[in-house]
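hiii, so i know i said id send this last week but things got crazy w the move. better late than never?? heres the sequnce for the chain we talked about at the cafe, plus the structure i predicted for it. fair warning i was half asleep when i ran it
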Amino acid sequence: MSRVFRHDPIDFRALPPAIKGLILATVAGFFLSKLAGPRVDDLFGLVPQSTVFDRWLWQPFTYLFLHGDIWHLLFNLFALWMFGMPVEAQWGPAEFLKYYFVCGVSGALLTCALTPHSTIPVIGASASVYGMLVAFAMLYPDAVVYLYFLIPVKAAHMAILFGALEFFAGAANSTPGIARFAHLGGMIAGYIYIRWWFAWKVNAKSFAKGLFERDEPPPRPEPAARRAPPPPQARPRPGGMDEVDRILDKILSDGLESLTDDEREIMRRYSQSQKERPS
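okay and structure toks below
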């Protein structure tokens, strides 16, 4: 059955912690880079030649927080919010952040492997965002997403479509200004992470938990606690004042010797309760 996801209007205060932190860091990186000038992209963007040969190993991480213009920034943040919300809700912030950087760094490594001598800076969180699309599609494959806000398509089909587009566009080098292989690297890493590593980790935890539970001796059943009989005044009285009145009438008419054992017990408890009543 198809599943339709609905997002409430964007409220920054209601965002989960990992997405909120990433949005703050990405917006801060964008404005700081605009204030500091284009040299920031050479230092903190992904320049394959600098990363591979000069060992500027911070670049595969920092390039995720730089963007070329406001539309590039807003598109990535919107996609992060749309696909990331249900993923973080299911995984939690720690696992979500780990996956985000695994996809982003993997996109950088694939770019460096294919174009190690390039001196053109690569910037943007698109590799992580495309990895988030893969996570959403694998967790909710039948969820309906409106492609370009118009065309309803299942999440799994959209991920396959985007992956094919990135591969053929990158192979043909039809858009040299867009780091297609960074996007593709994020998607491949996301698929491998969820398909094998994440599934193996969940199964390993379940297996270890099962071993631990088998090693523990079964708990001994505790003997049933014996309940002390309630004090005489706490026992339920078979009857109220009507019963007492009936017994008093019987005494007046037939004498004390006519009472049964149960009637004598009722009158004894009644007499005791009258003595204990505060004056």
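btw Residues 236-274 form one domain. thought thatd interest u
miss u guys!!
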